[in-house]
Amino acid sequence: MKHSIRFNENVRRVVSFILRPWLKKGFLFDDSAFPPLPERFLLVANHVINFDPLMVTHKSRRFIHFVATEHLFSLGWISKLIIWLIDPIPRAQGGNAAATVMDILRKLKNEGSVGLCVEGNCTWDGVTAPFPPATGKMARSAGVPLVTVHVSGYLARPRWAFTRRKGPVEIRLAGIYQPEELKKMKPEEINALIARDLFEDAYATQEKNPHPYPGKRLAEGLEFALPLCPRCHGLDRFQSRDDRYRCACGFSVQYDQWGYFTAEEGETPFRSVRDWDAWQKAYLASLALEDLPVAEDEEMQLLQIQEHKRIPLAAGTLRLDAGGLSLGEKHFAFEEIAELAIRYKGVVSFSDKDGRFYEILKKKKKIRYHGRKYLLLYERRMN
């Protein structure tokens, strides 16, 4: 929904006014403004915590149309309010991004600045993920300055966590590149520039300049990120409570305020979420396809999203095995799935080769499931 520049700026000022005390209470965050930015620009940033787009807008002191995932547009009256206020650009997570690129270019040409978390997903392990190769071509075609913003502070609110931890979050202006510069560069060179400016490894940062991130229930939620046990190799057998993370086989670790694991008995095989995540991916990669574990959850529902509305299609047991992804009477062979992703902590969303977009929820909406196990197994079978 198009508004005047004055309306957009008034919305930004009100949001920043409300946001400032919350940021100062919850994080160690320098909210001083960036140096002056161009009148119109394409801003790209890495995605460390769920709130960092708000923090980037706050420090930019400029209204920015951010790209948002499809689920934000299918929340009924809440979505209508969000669209009316901030006019985000839809991106179907697990879907085709070509339409999103065209929307970004139109917005830059006709309405204002655009912000994009290039990874498309908040990091699981504190390390910046690869981003689509088409990003460099889009930045070159945009005809506006490219602004790169580097975000650090993963340990303040990891994607998998339920609680905030009081520690530093840094939003830093990394670079401003004029369209004349970008026109002289190949898309691959622009991608390399973006990757250099945006790369973050939270544990490398922590080792270089250690900070505590104290809080409550520090380990709760790790099931969403680390479903594979290093001792029994079982899948989704963990339970977290307070600062403890325990598998049904007896393996147990403690997660401390510095973001590291210690073992209750002996030594832990992994010191960090980053290292554990790297191991579980490598372990799955070492298995033959026929030896991969099966992921399964009961009492699930499959929904198709059409015109920002959720339409129930099937209900029953969700299962991913050698034959593909199935839920109740619905079955999707791997070759039928165009892309699969996770939103929030663990909701599976995917698109098929015909462009239809789906998401999978628990039948009882307040009960969560650990959807990342499906993503890990899907990526292993497709790579």
Question: Overview of this structure, please?
Answer:
By secondary structure, this protein is of the alpha/beta class. It folds into three domains: 5-208, no CATH class; 222-286, no CATH class; 291-382, PH-domain like (Roll), CATH 2.30.29.30. The protein is built from ten helices and 18 strands. It has helices at 5-26, 52-60, 77-86, 98-110, 134-142, 179-183, 187-198, 202-208, 273-286, 372-382; strands at residues 28-29, 42-45, 65-69, 89-91, 114-117, 146-152, 168-177, 238-241, 244-247, 252-255, 261-263, 295-306, 309-321, 324-327, 330-332, 337-343, 347-352, 357-362. The strands form three sheets. A seven-stranded mixed beta sheet has the order 1-7-6-2-5-3-4, sandwiched between helices. Strands 15-14-13-12-18-17-16 form a seven-stranded antiparallel beta sheet. A four-stranded antiparallel beta sheet has the order 8-9-10-11, with no helix packed on it. The longest helix has 22 residues, at 5-26. It is globular and about 55 Å long. It starts with a helix and ends with a helix.
Brief rundown of the structure:
29% of the residues lie in helices and 26% in strands. It is α/β, with parallel strands linked by helices.
Q: How do the SSEs run, as a string of H and E?
A: HEEHEHEHEHEEHHHEEEEHEEEEEEEH
Query: How would you state the average pLDDT, rounded?
Result: 90
The radius of gyration computed from the alpha-carbon positions, rounded to a whole number of angstroms, is: 21 Å
Q: Give the structural class.
A: alpha/beta
Total DSSP helices: 10
